[in-house]
Design a protein that fits this description.
Elements (H helix, E strand, L loop, with lengths): L2 H11 L14 E2 L18 E6 L6 H17 L5 E6 L4 H13 L4 E4 L8 H9 L4 E4 L9 E5 L1 H16 L7 E6 L5 H14 L5 E6 L5 H15 L4 E6 L2 H13 L15 H9 L5 E4 L1 H18 L9 E3 L7 E6 L1 E4 L5 H5 L6 H4 L5 H7 L3
Parallel strand pairs: 2-3, 2-4, 4-5, 5-6, 6-12, 7-8, 7-9
Antiparallel strand pairs: 1-11, 10-13, 11-12
Helix pairs in contact: 2-10, 3-4, 5-6, 7-8
Length: 373
């Protein structure tokens, strides 16, 4: 891991975000159900952790999640633990095959970030039957999950909705808002949507709303072109975009329609391109999520379960319910609204990006204007 990534992990681990971790949905304090899965044999530190990530289009997975998880597992196992890694490239069928591969390799525990949270349920069941506990990462998969960590997804949607309302101000009901939600195969997308609607309903007029296939920017772009055609470019006062990748596709469509002054557009993930659009005034906000904290948490969960059959008590897990199981031990990580006003105190301070990476020649004047140096 490079120096910048180490700084990010240390900054988070040191408690830079000292916030109460309130679990979403039906979460409650852990202690009711004990669904621990005891390892078939103690291997000490010499464990093998399977890591299945959903796609490689979003920058976070290869840049943050994978290297931090690998480093933390090495630290927790005194360098004796091994990580078997596969990426599904947004293909649910491929991910099911990858679960089978991990079972064949007889990993001791599996960290799973599902492409399709329902489609993996059978694979999760097969893994458990093979004595391999599955830790759901970032998205709560169905099936007999041993533990789960993610962000408060409804809070993400609320944060986005509140930011959009703030940006709109008195113009909130003067035109139409377009809502660009994520993929229906991702349970987080439904929670983001629910959170956003809880804030926006009754306060804005939603002209068009889409569930965007596979979260792809090109699909969001096509949806936005359809919304512009149906509503009229001058009638759109704001766009709720569930993440930064889609925000990029949306903004391209708005520019393509000839809009010189863009309506406020939300986002999520604090991707470099998204941060640069915020600097330039093209995107209003993103949601900053501490991937180091989430990644370190899932690594600690996985190692603890592989060694002892249960979640380390120091994580102070709550519990959540999925569509198939109840009382799943869970740790929920807080989020922050990222705008041009706090770039320095979030992504720069925590080592995600340097000012030089953000403020390239194209963005230098915009960076100077907002005091980002």
């Amino acid at each position: 891991m490079n120096t910048r990534m180490r700084r990010a992990a240390v900054a988070v681990a040191a408690g830079a975000m000292a916030v109460s971790l309130a679990a979403c949905g039906s979460a409650k304090q852990s202690g009711g159900k004990d669904d621990s899965q005891k390892p078939s044999a103690s291997k000490g530190d010499a464990i093998t952790v399977g890591l299945l990530l959903p796609e490689n289009q979003t920058a976070r997975y290869e840049k943050f999640d994978k290297p931090i998880i690998e480093k933390q597992i090495a630290t927790l196992t005194n360098g004796k633990g091994k990580v078997e890694y596969l990426n599904a490239k947004q293909d649910a069928t491929l991910q099911s095959q990858q679960i089978d591969t991990m079972i064949t390799k007889k990993v001791d525990v599996l960290i799973l970030d599902a492409v399709d949270y329902k489609a993996v349920a059978q694979g999760v069941k097969k893994a458990k039957e093979a004595g391999i506990p599955v830790v759901a990462y970032d998205r709560l998969a169905e099936g007999p999950i041993a533990a789960y960590t993610s962000f408060d997804n409804e809070e993400v949607g609320k944060t986005q909705g509140e930011a959009l309302l703030k940006a709109l101000g008195a113009k909130a009901k003067s035109g139409k808002v377009v809502m660009m939600n994520g993929s229906v195969t991702d349970p987080n997308a439904a929670q983001f949507k629910k959170g956003a609607h809880s804030v926006l309903d009754g306060k804005v007029n939603v002209g068009k709303e889409y569930d965007t296939k596979e979260w792809k920017p090109e699909n969001a772009n096509a949806n936005m072109e359809g919304a512009i055609s149906a509503l009229g470019k001058d009638k759109i006062v704001g766009v709720y975009s569930a993440n930064d990748g889609m925000a990029g596709g949306i903004i391209t469509a708005l520019k393509g329609a000839g809009l010189k002054t863009l309506p406020p557009v939300t986002g999520q993930d604090a991707e470099l391109a998204g941060v640069q659009r915020i600097v330039a005034g093209e995107q209003y906000m993103s949601v900053f999520k501490s991937y180091p904290q989430e990644a370190e948490t899932v690594a600690k969960m996985a190692v603890s379960i592989a060694k002892t059959g249960k979640v380390d008590s120091s994580l102070n897990a709550t519990t959540v319910d999925s569509g198939t199981d109840k009382g799943i031990p869970a740790v929920i990580v807080p989020v922050v609204s990222l705008t041009k006003d706090n770039i320095q105190d979030t992504v720069v301070k925590q080592g995600y990006y340097t000012v030089a990476e953000i403020c390239t020649a194209k963005y230098k004047a915009a960076c100077d204007k907002i005091g980002l140096k």
